[in-house]
């Protein structure tokens, strides 16, 4: 009983991103695009009852991938089934105006963060210093370019693989799961601003793994 | 305005700055070409990362996560084990008289105490106990019923499949001829009727005058068999009268059972009043209040009754074993008599020896014993031997040992040997299971509420399965399914302890991988804890129940999860 309630509460905690003070105009656009593109809600004609499992099916692979990215191979299988069950229990509270994929991946995010936190010392995924912007370079030589990435696919993958799981999780939540900063912040229990900081740290690591200089040529603030 | 730090620009590029900050960045972008280019580059980078993350990651060689040291469960178990062991030894060694009832040898566990209290209550306050039990049962059934209904409503297909499977399993193979007669009032197999194959009948009154060529299974209020049954007869009812011929075994349960037909096989019977008036070619196993054996039994007879009478025309071809309050033996026993009774009167003959525990024993004139009588009575005057009674080997008094102190099991080496054997066996079974079905042991308990849910599920499964089996037996047709269910349940009971052992073991050893060696280590550690825990004095018994329920719960939830997953992820990579 209490478990189901906990899951429901968790799912209820994930409203559309626009509510957040950080949800800017672009975020709203993106949400709208996602809504239009997502096929799942369109199929859900009133009266037509799709079982949860049927609707889950098209996104199962994405959930699995996110779990792998956030937890590594070993625990992903467990997490995947856990996410399915959680989502199934919380399905009654699913707000049908949101893309199902985002909703599912948000649930997966919460679950995986729980797992990560259990593993971490004192339940903290990031050190205090990691969450602060103090030592971040104001300007860097340059982000990863499409051209470079296509030439050095293998290295890029290796760099992502080598990232500490919390950092890789943040990247995955943003650029794979396409969750808003606010949603990610809620899952990680940090502020949306800190999401930006951590995200940027993760990018810096990837860049430096690919041999790109950081902090070069920038205007220091 | 100066350039923003890059992480802010990145957040802007991601479209994640709030409106006012986004506006200020945009104002800056108008003037700063460098930052404009940077925003575009950051968006490119976001796309690059997204693509890379969408593509397959290499099989990760993620470093084994440093797990937080769990102190809670293992530590508390260790503490409990330690305390209980010390307490057990102290209790075992020196025990004040006042708390003698706590003695591990006298009361092996809390459930014994519970039952003792129950019996006490039942004697003293009958109505109260029944009321409490009644309310509990009704509440439990109501909760269970609503749960089942809601579960079924959600998975109507699953329920249907289960029902179909049940039917399929319980129905005998299609080619075996089955005749099913079901009527509210009465089922009558007329004199000239003949049933080939298995005959099922349920009704108020079942009368068989014809011939059943196979087995007959009958459930009715009143059952009369005057015809011929060429196979076995299995019957349950209030009044049973058997006057025909039964070629196979006779298995009967009822209130009044009258057997006036010769039985070719053995006779198994449980009833209030039982009379056996015709010869039984096999053995007799009977339990009842009043039992009269007026005919010879060719083989052995084992009897438990309040009143048992072996009349002059009755006889036992081999041994007679009797547990009874009042026993009168006028017939002949071809071999030994073993009797645990209150009063025993013998005027018949026993060809060999008698082993008798009785509070009152009377050999009347005409009694004859071929061998010796080993007798235990409270005192020797409780045995009377009349003039004319012959006991060839004489009477040997043996110690009246009904009220001896129960001995603590902890003193015997057998006790420890068996525990070791059990542990080794369970370890082997666990390893084999892990090799065959590695997914079986994929369970964890992450929170208190999950623990409670598991425990409650397991505890609920006990009465549910039992009630289900009883229901199946009542339908008569479902008997094979009921037996199968019980067997499966016994297996599950064994697995339950393995499951708990794995859970505990993983808590203790914290395996880093799923390799067999690490699993084995965890299993061994868990089994050790479980074995010690359930054999501790006083707390061992309730611990056994808790672990059993926990294990059942783990297995049940795991099975449910596996079923859901299989349904949902059938086509996933």
Low-confidence stretches of chain A: 1-48, 214-221
Order of helices and strands of chain A: HHHHHHHHHHHHH
The count of helical stretches of chain A stands at: 13
Average predicted local confidence, pLDDT of chain B: 79
Structural class of chain B: alpha/beta
Largest sheet of chain B: 15 strands, parallel
Kindly report the average pLDDT value of chain A: 73
Total beta-strand segments of chain A: 0
Number of contiguous helices of chain B: 12
Oligomer: heterodimer
Structural class of chain A: mainly alpha
Q: What portion of the residues of chain B fall into strands of 2 or more residues?
A: 15-25%
Number of beta-strand segments of chain B: 25
N/C terminus separation of chain A: 54 Å
The portion of residues forming beta strands of chain A comes to under 5%
Global outline of chain B:
elongated
Question: Most extensive interface: pair and counts?
Answer: A-B, 77 and 59 residues
Termini separation of chain B: 52 Å
Detail the poorly predicted runs of chain B: 56-71, 95-108, 171-176
The percentage helix of chain A is 55-70%
- How many domain regions of chain A? 1
């Amino acid at each position: 009983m209490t478990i189901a309630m906990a899951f429901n509460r968790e799912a209820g905690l994930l409203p559309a991103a626009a509510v957040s003070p950080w949800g800017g105009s672009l975020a709203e656009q993106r949400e709208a695009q996602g809504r239009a593109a997502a096929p799942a809600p369109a199929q859900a004609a009133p009266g037509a009852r799709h079982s949860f499992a049927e609707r889950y099916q098209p996104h199962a692979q994405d959930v699995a991938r996110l779990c792998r990215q956030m937890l590594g191979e070993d625990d992903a299988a467990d997490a995947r089934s856990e996410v399915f069950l959680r989502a199934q229990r919380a399905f009654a509270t699913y707000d049908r105006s949101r893309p199902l994929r985002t909703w599912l991946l948000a649930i997966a995010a919460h679950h995986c963060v729980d797992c990560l936190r259990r593993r971490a010392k004192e339940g903290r995924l990031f050190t205090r210093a990691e969450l602060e912007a103090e030592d971040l370079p104001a300007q860097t030589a340059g982000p990863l370019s499409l051209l470079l990435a296509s030439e050095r696919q293998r290295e890029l993958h290796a760099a992502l693989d080598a990232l500490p799981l919390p950092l890789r999780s943040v990247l995955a939540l943003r650029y794979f799961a396409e969750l808003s900063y606010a949603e990610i912040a809620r899952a990680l229990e940090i502020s949306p601003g800190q999401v930006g900081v951590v995200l940027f740290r993760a990018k810096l690591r990837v860049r430096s793994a690919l041999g790109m200089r950081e902090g070069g040529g920038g205007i220091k603030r | 305005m100066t350039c923003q730090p890059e992480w802010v620009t990145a957040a802007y590029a991601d479209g994640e700055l709030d409106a006012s900050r986004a506006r200020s960045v945009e104002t800056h972008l108008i003037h700063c070409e460098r930052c404009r280019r940077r925003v575009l580059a950051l968006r490119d980078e976001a796309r690059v990362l997204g693509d890379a993350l969408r593509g397959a990651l290499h099989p990760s060689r993620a470093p084994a996560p440093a797990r937080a040291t769990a102190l809670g469960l293992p530590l508390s178990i260790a503490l409990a084990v330690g305390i209980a062991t010390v307490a057990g030894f102290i209790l075992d060694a020196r025990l004040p008289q006042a708390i003698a009832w706590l003695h591990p040898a006298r009361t092996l566990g809390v459930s014994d105490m519970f039952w003792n209290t129950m019996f006490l209550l039942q004697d003293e306050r009958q109505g109260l106990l029944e009321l409490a039990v009644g309310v509990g049962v009704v509440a439990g059934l109501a909760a269970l019923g609503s749960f089942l209904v809601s579960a079924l409503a959600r998975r109507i297909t699953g329920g249907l499949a289960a029902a179909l499977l049940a039917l399929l399993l319980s129905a005998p193979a299609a080619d075996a001829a089955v005749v099913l007669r079901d009527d509210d009032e009465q089922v009558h197999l007329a004199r000239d009727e003949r049933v080939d194959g298995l005959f099922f009948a349920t009704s108020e009154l079942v009368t068989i005058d014809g011939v059943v060529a196979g087995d007959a299974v009958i459930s009715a209020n009143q059952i009369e068999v005057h015809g011929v049954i060429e196979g076995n007869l299995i019957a349950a009812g209030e009044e049973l009268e058997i006057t025909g011929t039964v070629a196979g075994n006779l298995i009967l349960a009822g209130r009044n059972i009258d057997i006036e037909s010769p039985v070719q096989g053995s006779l198994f019977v449980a009833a209030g009043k039982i009379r056996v008036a015709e010869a039984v070619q096999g053995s007799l196993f009977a339990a009842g209040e009043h039992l009269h054996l007026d005919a010879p039994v060719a083989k052995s007879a084992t009897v438990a009754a309040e009143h048992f009478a072996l009349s002059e025309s009755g006889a036992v071809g081999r041994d007679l074993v009797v547990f009874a309050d009042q026993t009168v033996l006028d017939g002949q026993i071809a071999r030994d008599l073993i009797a645990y009774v209150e009063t025993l009167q013998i005027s018949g003959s026993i060809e060999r020896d008698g082993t008798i525990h009785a509070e009152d024993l009377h050999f009347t004139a005409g009694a004859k014993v071929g061998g010796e009588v080993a007798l235990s009575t409270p005192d020797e005057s409780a045995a009377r031997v009349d003039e004319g009674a012959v006991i060839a080997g004489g009477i040997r008094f043996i110690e009246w040992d009904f009220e001896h102190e129960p001995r603590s099991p902890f003193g015997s080496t057998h006790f420890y040997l068996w525990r070791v054997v059990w542990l080794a066996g369970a370890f082997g079974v666990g390893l084999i299971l892990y090799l065959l079905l590695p997914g079986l042991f994929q369970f964890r308990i992450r929170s208190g509420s999950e623990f409670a849910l598991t425990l409650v599920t397991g505890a609920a499964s006990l009465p549910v399965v039992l009630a289900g089996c009883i229901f199946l037996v009542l339908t008569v047709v479902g008997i094979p399914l009921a037996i199968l269910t019980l067997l499966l349940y016994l297996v599950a009971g064994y697995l339950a302890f393995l499951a708990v052992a794995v859970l505990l073991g993983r808590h203790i050893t914290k395996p880093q991988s799923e390799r067999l060696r690490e699993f084995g280590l965890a299993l061994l550690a868990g089994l050790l804890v479980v074995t010690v825990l359930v054999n501790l004095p006083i707390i061992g018994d309730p611990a056994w129940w808790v672990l059993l329920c926990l294990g059942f719960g783990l297995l049940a939830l795991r099975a449910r999860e596996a079923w859901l997953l299989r349904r949902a992820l059938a086509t996933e990579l």
